[in-house]
Automatic annotation (TrEMBL):
GO BP annotations listed: Gram-negative-bacterium-type cell outer membrane assembly; lipopolysaccharide transport
Gene that specifies this protein: lptE
Organism classification: Bacteria, Pseudomonadati, Pseudomonadota, Gammaproteobacteria, Pasteurellales
GO CC annotations on file: cell outer membrane; transporter complex
Keyword Lipoprotein: yes
Name under which the protein is recorded: LPS-assembly lipoprotein LptE
Length: 164
């Protein structure tokens, strides 16, 4: 009975078009942003732009009265975490650090930063498959970093309220 009731509830929510309102988390000043990056076509820039569109943030050209999100730096690195008996690298820790700045007109600039870490098993005998897996992991890390940056932007609401 409970399974049928939950199925009916899920179908009802799906049929009526109900969905979470992610953009309500953002302060009014940050629901429309201009976006700047040194490389507009980098993987991080594309992931951040896509995430902004998914959360219903309007991206507009740079203007004096619109808040600005500037992607300052994206740094990726890898460290050896473990080795095989033959002294070859076995496991790596992939790290991604993203630094950005949100500038709100008449309220100031707010630097934000996020770091993502993942482990990657690197077997040199399957080099082609492992390079594709590493690229897939990096794409996922860019998406996760984008989500974390937007969560930190939403968290600026308290600071923006104090500067009025």
């Amino acid at each position: 009975m409970l399974k049928k009731l939950s199925l009916v509830f899920v179908l009802f929510l799906t049929a009526c078009g109900w969905h979470f309102k992610n953009s309500e988390l953002f302060p009014e000043e940050l629901r429309t942003l201009s976006f700047e990056s040194a490389d507009q076509y980098s993987d991080m820039s594309r992931a951040l732009r896509n995430e902004m569109l998914l959360t219903n943030i309007n991206i507009v050209p740079k203007a004096a009265n619109v808040a600005n999100l500037r992607l300052n730096a994206t740094e990726s690195s890898s460290r050896v975490a473990s080795v095989f008996k033959q002294a070859r690298e076995a496991e790596k820790i992939l790290s991604l650090t993203v630094k950005a700045t949100v500038t709100v007109p008449n309220k100031g600039s707010y630097p934000i930063e996020t770091s993502i870490h993942r482990t990657f098993f690197d077997d040199s005998r399957a080099a082609l498959a492992k390079s594709e897996e590493k690229e897939s992991i990096m794409r996922q890390m860019y998406e996760q970093a984008s989500r974390q940056l937007l969560i930190k932007i939403a968290g600026l609401q308290k600071e923006l309220a104090n500067t009025k």
